[in-house]
Amino acid sequence: MAPSSSSALVASSSHSAMHTGEWDYDVFLCFRGDDTRHGFTSHLLAALSDRKIKVFIDTMLRKTESIDELLSVLQRSALSIVIFSENFADSTWCLDEVATIAQSMAKLGHRALPVFYKVGWSDVAEDSGNYSVTIHEKLKSSPEDDKRWRGALKTVANCAGHTSQAIQIESKLIKLMVEDVMKLLTDMSPSIKSNNLVGLGSRVWEVEQLLAMDSLDDTRIIGLWGMGGVGKTTLAKACYERMVSSTEEIKHHFIWNINENCERQRGVEGIVHELYSKLLSENNLGREDLDMNYRRARLSRLKVFIVLDAVETHCQLEQFLLGDVFNLTKLFATGSRIIVTTRNKKVLQNAMAKVYGIECLNDDESIQLFSLRAFRQYCPPDNWMHLSRIATSKCKGNPLALRVLGGTLFGEDKDYWESFLGGLSLIQNPQIRDILRRSYDKMGTDEKRLFLDVACFLHGISRSTVIGYLAVLYPAAHVKVKDLIDNSLLICRCSEYGEKIEIHDLLKTMALDIVNEEPKLGKRSRLVDPDDIYKLLTTTKVESWGTLYRELFFRGIEMMVPPRRKRRKVIDMDRKGKCALEGLITTEGINLNLSKAKEMHLEANAFQGMDSLTFLKFWRLLKYIYHYQPTKKIIHLPSGGIDSLPDRLRWLQWDEYPSKSLPSGIYPQYLVHLIIRWSPIENCWENFDQPKLVNLVVLDLSSCFNLTAIPDLSESSKLEELLLPECRSLVELPSHVQCLEKLIILDLGYCLNLERLPSKLNSKFLKFVRMHDCPKVKFCPEINSGDLMELDLNGTPVSELPNAIYHVKEGGSLHLYGEIFTNFPAISASLDMFWLCHTAMKEINSYDHQASFELPPKISNLRLCGNSQLKSLPKSIWSMAASSLTVMGSPLLESLPEISEPVNGLKLLYITECESLKCLPLSINNLVSLSDLRLGNTGIKSLPSSIEELERLCHLDLSNCKSLESIPSNFHNLPKLLELLLRGCSSIQYLPELPPNLSILDVSGCRLLQALPSNITKLSWKCLRFYDCPQIDRILPDEIMANYLVHAILSRHSKNELAYSGSDIPEWFEYKNVTDKDNSCLTVQLPPANCTGSKQPIKGIAFGVVWSSDAFDFWPIMKCECDFGTITMASWSSYSFSANTRDVTKSSDQVLLWFDKIKQSKEGETEAWFVKYASQTVLLRFSPDLRYTEGEKQTKNLTIKRYGVSPLY
């Protein structure tokens, strides 16, 4: 169909359908008849029809009707199911349908549910996917149709849907699709759509499944549970209205905000009387003296549907249900349904209700709800999207906050938005504050304090850690934490590491505001703000009255009677006008993020007088715990350190603690957590008796390089975590560690001088033992734990076979190392990860010769590294490695076993540094799931032709295969190959035609390569590298250079790179330096704003660098930073793909060109940087990007000779 026809149909369609939910058909089926009509589509149609869903399929059209009629029906349908199949893109009808679906989604609120049937998402959505190739090559489409179809395919493919590759059983796939259709149709029903209830459809559908109104053979209570403002009442109302409109024989009633009515009006009794009078159709609302037994008898014969909104206590629910919540069959007739909304989960548990926990909205739903309030439309205008995302990020999916914020910003200009959002605290809004504080205000004193502790200090960490710490401060801490979760003030989320305690950002902000209501800094119970902490620690000192008395005495001022007991007083330390903190300091906790803190110099007595302090945490978040690199010091202490720390400390964490030992004036008997990381500390306590750490649960001294001894843990019977990684000076782990019977984690990784360990570890709870890279350790302690999940001895050459290797549980991780292993260990557990490195194994034969093992265990990730004597692998290796197999550094390995049958699951195969390996198995095609094949530094001469059958292969690495002479001519048949690395393949002379989706090609160091493939200029490149290719350098195709700009601008990639040997920046660069002086800076004047305008015709910027180095192991990654005065307003880096170059000849000069598409430099910017700084002169600075290299070691000999930039329009 012509584009104009489609547009006309969209324009003429009734806009009211978006609001009323009225349509002719529920579902429009879009599919390729030749592919799926008599199979998958027919089964799906039957399943939808069985659920009374009105479906349109093309067979309902008369033969005389045209595509226009079909598209008209589509627009009168609520949603479309699009079945993407192999030949879908062959049909212009199908493509026109998808284009109309995309337009209807944007303009009419139409919904789409894609299913990828025997094709992948990339086949459909990517510009270089099979569909795009078909459109371009087979259909010979016009540029307009090409753009329209491709855009529509991407739009629809990006909707949430299903794939037959993930769900291979078709009946299960169809069942899930039908459920999704039901959810979407519920979401589009009149009661939801007309009220703009975003994201409610799927939730209503899920609650209706719990209500089971089609099977009224029992009586049920359904509980809607969640935090304030999350939409409990809204969801209950939607379910109630849908039920009322569809059911007449059931009595129904909705009681709003029971808790508030109980408090402000007649109490529970009056509301109960009103409810029962309504249900029983009694005209006696003024009488409350009626016989309840008589009412009970009548109610027991009545089928009801009631909603009890905002029930706070179990007592309220009992009174509503006549005290009989545990026997509903006697209270109401069978088939009755009761919905209860509450923040208190315990109310529902006591009533034996089915609990439905309401989650906050996701990002897309948040944007939609916010937009409806802020713009009165479903999606923000394009030039407001960035600010809208900033606004919604502050709400964290809370519907109430989104509605309030959207309404506040409605009709305001961008300056108002930026100013408002910059200083926004949503919790200050009375409507939000009152709802969120309701649960907090009803808590007891201990519960309030505990909630504030978690909100200010303890969120985001494990539940056991939170409870373990709080247990020493509050009685029944476990119960109190559960109550806070049940009351929706805290969230407990499950992760791969166990349960974590989290808190919604609005509730966290509320907690901080509650703390900040305490006006005086020294009186605030908890400090989180870096400025407040700086002021507290640097502007005060504390002296005892005794000290003050002595000072006054020596000054000749007589005091008659000093105070009888030692008290502390805060006086001004700075005599130059700073305000003193008056009175006693009652701060209970300090939590300082060092990355956000100002540099501060503390006095020796900085912590004196803080007798109430129980929590002190100076922390820094690092990406990697190991291989710590020193950062700028934030906290400085006097040469003698600090005098003392508060006696009542329970949690002491001081990352980068700057002294050699903790202060002598500390009495750590109450400490539960002691964490001193990345510190020059040598001994925790020096020159005095070791304290007894009787309450310690966690001791973390990670990366304390100078630590020579750990504290005395002989009485630390509660210790669960002992973390000592990278304690490089530690020689001995004391014998008393074996008596820590509650120990769960022991980490000794990279303790390079550790020699002596306890003979055994007695803890029955031990889960993680990390002793990797301890070169002086010769044995592994005996471990008798039945919970062992990880044993890591990689890099630790034990001389005895540790018995613990047989105790690792299913799904665990085992890393072994050393020549003590001459055979593959006969482990029976199926592990997630198993490393066997630098052993004396010659072959893996345990499972071939031991009758006790019929089949080897499944190992998700099997890694065999540095086994220099290994000569062969068994056939069972293919069934053993479930997800990935790595064999590295086995120079005697000559072949891989054949693969006798298809193997599902194995996705990654890394065979590297195996120089004797000459070929791959001819049956390599049986690895049907393989997506990543790495064969670097092997002796492979050629690839088998069967490699073309690896349909899922995305990455192929043949780097430094010096014997590789050819690649099969059918290589171009690999449909999904994205990356081909051939650097250092010094024998290869020709390349075949390349696969159609290839976007990364590196042939650096292929010194005999005579020519590039014929189709190289037709592909959409992300990265092309030709360093050190003398034949190519001489004949580098002019077409590649001439079309580089066109390829870069039209490419689907945000970044494109071209690298080759040379000494000049291309002539077409608009700005470049004219000398070889290496100042690496370039001055550029940006174009005026009227040259850009709102349409942003600047497509991107091309960067060029000529560099040289006589010593480097990796190709450097370059960056360019754009400065305006002292402001760095933007920065760009070349492709972050730093390849090893040890076998590539280093020629003198190299050229690196890269292209970055225009993007806003900072999140939240409403104007692109080139518009904001239009006509200004800016400075561009070029340098190696140290984030992706080995730092100065790799770049000290690197010289940037020439550089340039060129805006591309």
Describe what this molecule looks like in 3D.
27% of the residues lie in helices and 19% in strands. With 1209 residues, the protein is of the alpha/beta class. The protein has a 25-stranded mixed β-sheet, with helices on both faces. A five-stranded parallel β-sheet has the order 2-1-3-4-5, with helices on both faces. The chain has a five-stranded parallel β-sheet with strand order 7-8-9-6-10, with helices on both faces. The N terminus is likely disordered. It comes from Linum trigynum. This is TIR domain-containing protein.
Short précis:
The chain has 1209 residues and is an alpha/beta fold.
Topology (elements, then pairings):
Elements: H1 3-12, H2 17-20, E1 25-30, H3 33-36, H4 40-50, E2 55-56, H5 67-75, E3 77-84, H6 92-108, E4 111-116, H7 121-125, H8 130-138, H9 143-157, E5 162-163, H10 170-187, H11 190-193, H12 200-211, E6 220-225, H13 232-246, E7 251-255, H14 258-264, H15 267-279, H16 292-299, E8 304-308, H17 314-320, H18 328-331, E9 337-342, H19 345-350, E10 354-357, H20 363-374, H21 385-393, H22 399-409, H23 414-422, H24 430-441, H25 445-458, E11 461-462, H26 463-470, H27 477-486, E12 491-495, E13 498-502, H28 505-516, E14 526-527, H29 530-538, E15 540-544, H30 545-554, E16 568-572, E17 589-593, E18 600-601, E19 615-619, E20 635-636, E21 651-654, E22 673-675, E23 698-700, E24 721-723, E25 745-747, E26 760-761, E27 768-770, E28 782-783, E29 790-792, E30 813-817, E31 831-837, H31 846-849, E32 859-865, H32 877-880, E33 881-888, E34 908-912, E35 932-934, E36 955-957, E37 979-981, E38 1000-1002, E39 1023-1026, H33 1030-1035, H34 1038-1042, H35 1044-1050, E40 1055-1061, E41 1071-1072, E42 1081-1085, E43 1100-1108, E44 1118-1124, E45 1127-1133, ...
Parallel strand pairs: 1-2, 1-3, 3-4, 4-5, 6-9, 6-10, 7-8, 8-9, 14-17, 17-19, 18-20, 19-21, 21-22, 22-23, 23-24, 24-25, 25-27, 26-28, 27-29, 29-30, 30-31, 31-32, 32-33, 33-34, 34-35, 35-36, 36-37, 37-38, 38-39, 39-40
Antiparallel strand pairs: 11-13, 12-13, 15-16, 40-46, 41-48, 42-47, 43-46, 43-48, 44-45, 44-47
